[in-house]
Amino acid sequence: MTTNTKALLLAGLLIPGAALAQVGAGDALGTSEADIRTAVEAQGYTVSEIEFEDGEIEVEAMLNGQAYEIEIAADTGLVLEVELEDDDDDDS
After folding, report:
1. What CA–CA distances, in Å, run from 2 to 8, 21, 81?
2. Is residue 34 in a domain?
3. How many domains does the chain have?
4. Considering the domain boundaries, does residue 70 fall inside one?
5. 14, 45, 71, 76: which could join 80 in a potential S-S bond, CB 3.0 to 4.6 Å?
6. CA atoms 25, 81, 66, 50: torsion sign
7. Is 41 within 8 Å of 29 (Cβ atoms)?
8. What is the rounded (10 degree) CA torsion for 69, 82, 13, 7?
């Protein structure tokens, strides 16, 4: 196998894994704003807001044009829920 072929094969194996990396329930992101922002942005998200309230940390973030709300336990730093935000405010 040539060096170029090996490089292309390796890139083909690594790139899809990176594209699928997302924050999920049970992931440890930390309890400080700096730790959370670093961990979420390392997964490709753009963080727009982080709020601390009622024992939870809520992170508003974008990934691939989709808005997400990530809920984190303030005491453990573990992700409780990742919710895809619906642009449709219609109740019908």
Report:
1. 10, 30, 45
2. yes
3. 1
4. yes
5. 71
6. negative
7. no
8. 30
The answer to whether residue 42 is domain-embedded is: yes
Give tens-digit pLDDT for 40-71. Answer: 999 999 999 999 999 999 999 999 999 999 99
- For the chain, the residue count is 92
Domain membership of residue 15 (yes or no) is no
Do residues 61 and 48 touch, judged by C-beta distance below 8 A?
A: yes
Instruction: Give every CB contact of residue 36 below 8 A, 6+ residues apart in sequence.
Output: 29, 30, 47, 50, 57, 59, 72, 77
**Overall pTM > 0.85:** no
Of 56, 31, 18, nearest in space to 83 by CA: 56
Assigned token pair, 80: 């409780």
24: amino acid identity, one letter:
G
For residue 73, the enclosing domain spans 23-84
